[in-house]
Design goal:
Blueprint lengths: L7 H8 L5 E3 H8 L3 H13 L3 E5 L2 E4 L11 H4 L3 E3 L1 H7 L10 E5 L4 E4 L4 E6 L8 E6 L2 E6 L1 H14 L16 H7 L5 H14 L17
Parallel strand pairs: 5-7
Antiparallel strand pairs: 1-3, 2-3, 4-5, 6-7, 8-9
Helix pairs in contact: 2-3, 5-6, 6-8
């Protein structure tokens, strides 16, 4: 198919009805043209403000309605889930609003950013890849952590960076304390120590039960 026969504006508008994301190599195969030609056409559309180049082969269709950017999470890093500050803010546990969508992954850590979407991936070991749910949007699915898991991920990664726990930042009343204590068995003891300090500082009531040294990872 020749490029001159394609009404790219119409094509992008039609694509927006079913997907907010465009991948240059996949579109090239569908249209029977080279990826280079497709990318050049996409870049021209980006200058017109119809789409946005996000990273490598991915483009965001700006004509798509209600696109959150979260649909990119598991496309960029299949083994990942939204966690940390994003989940803590949305569940009312933290008042701090992150600049990026924060996620953890068993893959390489990275940051991706455009005018409309910013995503930051932090690395965790494969045995900490659990404690999340699948969410569906109009344009796809993504994984998101339970709030208890998001807090423990935050404590764990903060420890790895040598950060100090800020006790006044969190409101733990919405968390399941028993679940927190159970989940923390999968983390280093330093994380359990930080969690207990947070619970004591917040006045949360909990039983200091004798728990196994390590529980089976949950998915």
């Amino acid at each position: 198919m020749k490029t001159s026969r394609i009404d790219w504006a119409k094509f992008i508008l039609e694509e927006a009805k079913g997907s907010a994301l465009l991948k240059s190599d996949e579109v090239a195969r569908r249209l029977g043209m080279s990826e280079l030609t497709t990318r050049r056409s996409f870049l021209r559309l980006a200058k017109r403000g119809m789409i946005e180049h996000f990273t490598k082969k991915w483009f965001i269709n700006l004509l798509a309605r209600d696109f959150s950017g979260r649909e990119l999470i598991n496309l960029l890093r299949p083994q990942s889930y939204i966690s940390l500050q994003t989940v803590l803010r949305e569940t009312g546990i933290s008042s701090q609003t992150p600049v990026s969508i924060t996620a953890v992954t068993t893959g390489e850590p990275a940051s991706f950013s455009s005018k409309t979407v910013s995503i930051t991936f932090r690395h965790v070991k494969p045995d900490l890849y659990w404690g999340f749910q699948i969410r569906r949007t109009l344009y796809g699915t993504y994984n998101v952590a339970e709030p208890e898991k998001a807090l423990l991920d935050w404590l764990y990664l903060g420890r790895k960076q040598g950060g100090k726990v800020i006790n006044d930042e969190f409101d733990l009343r919405k968390l399941d304390v028993k679940k927190l204590l159970l989940y923390t068995q999968n983390y280093p003891r330093s994380v359990r120590h930080d969690l207990l300090e947070l619970l004591v500082h917040s006045g949360s009531t909990f039983q200091n039960e004798s728990l196994p040294l390590r529980t089976k990872s949950r998915r």
